[in-house]
Design brief:
There is one protein chain. By secondary structure, the protein is mostly helical. Helices cover 70% and strands 1% of the residues. A two-stranded antiparallel sheet has the order 1-2. The chain starts with a helix and ends in a 9-residue tail after the last helix.
Length: 535
Amino acid sequence: MLGELAVRDAPDVDVVDFERLAGGGHVVQVADLLGRTRATTRSPLAMRSSGTMRMSAKVLLSQRMVCRAASRPEEFPPAWLRKSGWMSSSTMLSSAASKALRARRASWMLVFSVMGQLCRPAGPAALAIARRFGDADLEFDALALLGESYVESGRIAEGMTLIDQAMSAVSSGEVTGIVAVGDVYCRLLAACELTCDVRRAEQWMSVVARFVVWTNSLLVSTTCRLHYGGILTAIGRWEEAEAELVNAIRMSETGYRAMRVFPLVRLAELRVCQGRFEEAQRLIEGNEWHPIARRSLAAIALARGDVALAEDLVRMCLDGGDPRDPACAALHALLVEAQIARDDIGEAERTAAALAELAAASGNERARAYAELAEGRVLAARGDEHASAHLQAALAAFSSLELPLEAGRARLALARVIAVAAPDAAEAEARLALATFERLGAVRDADATAGLLREQGAPGRAWPKRYGTLTKRETEVLSLLATGCSNAEIARRLVISPRTAEHHVASILSKLGLRSRAEAAAYAVREPPERPVAG
């Protein structure tokens, strides 16, 4: 049935072959040594010789990306795909190639009809064909694909071993094709982001940079910077993460503009972590369909007390993905928070149990940490004394994974739970959490922690309240810093030069004894600037 639908516009293409090879006429990106790319299509009937068999393997590799898009309509809606150019030809086809064009259209219809169920065997099939014909580029590209698949399914050690093998082939010169090299790089960085493996990512980023210079491949650079920015965000190196994501946005604007949405929503996610909600919403505007944008908006809604909206947005994210995906763990944990906030402890308990099952099935350590955190929050809401044990387990897990924001939040939750029974220990934990949040620049989390300390009768501020009197202009600059404005934005708002804005920022940091713009922003939120005496 699907094959008949697919070839309705291409009557000279065999229906059985379409069904058997699952739309083997996908668009394949083939690059020559000069870095030029062209889209080419081969129908299943044409794949006969060793050369076309290798082409069919490349089709299978590209099929994985296509199927991902098809199986995630929330993340890759058809309108975006059309705009991005994935579903259109990048070259003018002659009249002699009209059959190929119809085959392409037909195969796209087939792919979107089956919604991604055909991508699972793509990696092994492509690898087998590559080894059969001795195609090193294709073999190691397929090996990296398999490795990424293993990492996604929780087989992290096996997957990273395969990716390391592919990267070794790239670094030794065994893989020479521009497309294959770029593809392996991107799969490496994607896997590193999933596992928060910053050391491995840093090891290869300089190699990626040389590759980008050699090929002028802005698409590869944008994708790699996107993943690297995600890693840096997770491990708390936020200034570096922002630099990578801003660079990715700029590169997408000068190159493959359809990619711009992805670093934009990642940067918005970073802004949410920093507590800069208004700026996050501005970055998300027009991209609310993206799951990362929805997750960020859900976190903002929950922080502002709009629990119903937060829960609806989280459910939309979960409905659009695979509930068995360990990447959904953070969403389940956020849903637990929303359910507790509306005092539905029973529902929160069921969500936490589902998260625990996901963590056990996937073997993913981050998912396990979120499961412990969720269980601890539920038990705390019930007043159960065992909450502390789960929160301590979550704290230990997040700390070992080098995820400071999550570790700080687990520590804060622990401090709340033990505040009555062990007030001194609670204060110590809260102070450690506050130090973490202030170092990161997580303004709202720091505010919540300082509030808990004040409730316990302890001072809630980690730095002195005031070191000097700000001028009226410096007070205005400090207020803008609190909203996340850059020096250029401050200059534009106050009608001054960027250099003058820079001097004002430096003066503010010096007078208040602060170390960074993030600390200045956190200070401004806690201590609204007083009207200065000096002019």
